[in-house]
Amino acid sequence: MAKARVAILISGGGTNMAALLYASKADTCPYEIVLVASNDPDAAGLKLAKAEGIATFSKAHKGMERAEHDMIMDMAIRTHRTDYVALAGYMRILTPEFVARWEGRMLNIHPSLLPKYKGLDTHQRALDAGDSHGGASVHLVTAELDDGPVLGQTAVAIIAGDISESLSARVKLAEYQLYPRVLADYVSRYNNADWLLQKVEGLALALPETHARASHGSAGFRVGSEKSGKFFAYFSVQHHGSDAIGVLVKTGSIDELETLCEQQPEIYWKPAFYGASGWIGVRLNRPGVDWDHVHEWLERSWRSVAPKSVTKLMDVAEEF
Ligand code: GRF
């Protein structure tokens, strides 16, 4: 299985970066670090990354427009064919454009139990409030600071006599465990057949006059009536020795099928039995699936078997 390619953005010591990096050394880790980038050319973490043989990039932000700096970072990230961005002590507010480009694919670690204590001085604020616990959260990055959906948290008990520094040191130990685990789970949700089926189901059943119908033990999707409907998609989980989890949809011809499988073997495969009648497998258990693309395939396949009366309605709707 290809590993998800992760770029880490840091501004300072980069100890979380180190935790992510060393966790990635395990053969079973589903991600690899392809780049460590910083807005501070002197960031200590860059030296460590370099010494560990990881590509690095830095661009000081001083005197630059925020948008311009973000764009330069974004270009560096893209050059490394990055699937995910992990912010680890990256002390920059990101432009909405940058955030939008990485929507759903950018994570951050924040040293508090979100939604408590967004922003700075989190440990002192937890102590001042008399909280029993501090902690750390990993969340998806959205346009609002420290506000995206929380993917995982670890609570860290506050001990009598704690000061900000002592609490921070223990929270960091928790961070080093939490971030690699949450990142690994998040990037490998694509190997989770239930999660994938749910996504396919959502797209397939949103098409007009469709219903689900199991076929040879797999989920399938049909268009038309319950009685005389036709299949336009099958969900396939590692059938006949293939390691692919994906959706089978109808191509226009065997030629098209063969060409796609040859040109993009990481996306397409020719399924046993079904392949002979023009069904192609679109692999979903891989990082960076383009769900709009999956949607297009489902719609095309749906169109190829749907009754004219139904596709006509769709054409009319699309004209408006
Ligand atoms: C961590 O406390 C993290 O929660 C916050 O910034 C700090 C980064 O520390 N976002 P380091 O550079 O990983 O040592």
Task: Spell out the blueprint of helices and strands.
Blueprint: E1 4-10, H1 15-23, E2 31-38, H2 44-51, E3 56-58, H3 66-79, E4 84-87, H4 96-101, E5 106-110, H5 122-128, E6 133-140, E7 150-157, H6 164-187, H7 193-204, E8 210-212, E9 220-223, E10 230-237, E11 245-250, H8 254-263, E12 268-269, E13 279-283, H9 291-305, H10 308-319
Parallel strand pairs: 1-2, 1-4, 2-3, 4-5
Antiparallel strand pairs: 5-6, 6-7, 8-9, 9-10, 10-11, 11-13, 12-13
Helix pairs in contact: 1-6
The structure holds 5-O-phosphono-beta-D-ribofuranosylamine.
The site of 5-O-phosphono-beta-D-ribofuranosylamine has 15 residues, from α1, β5 and α6.
Task: Describe this entry's structure for a reader.
This protein has 320 residues and is of the alpha/beta class. It has two domains: 4-190, 3-Layer(aba) Sandwich (Rossmann fold), CATH 3.40.50; 193-319, Aspartate Aminotransferase, domain 1 (Alpha-Beta Complex), CATH 3.90.1150.30. The protein is 37% helix and 22% strand. It has a seven-stranded mixed beta sheet, with helices on both faces. A six-stranded antiparallel beta sheet has the order 8-9-10-11-13-12. The radius of gyration is 24 Å and the shape is elongated. The relative contact order is 0.10. 5-O-phosphono-beta-D-ribofuranosylamine binds next to helix 1, strand 5 and helix 6.
Instruction: Give the overall silhouette.
Output: elongated
Radius of gyration: 24 Å
H/E element string? EHEHEHEHEHEEHHEEEEHEEHH
Category by helix and strand content: alpha/beta
Helix content: 25-40%
Count the E strands: 13
Small molecules bound in the structure, each named once: 5-O-phosphono-beta-D-ribofuranosylamine
Q: In the CATH scheme, what's the topology name of the largest domain?
A: Rossmann fold
Can you tell me the number of structural domains?
A: 2
The CATH first-level class of the largest domain comes to Alpha Beta
Give the DSSP E fraction (strand runs of 2 or more residues).
15-25%
Question: Uncertain segments of ≥5 residues (pLDDT<50)?
Answer: none
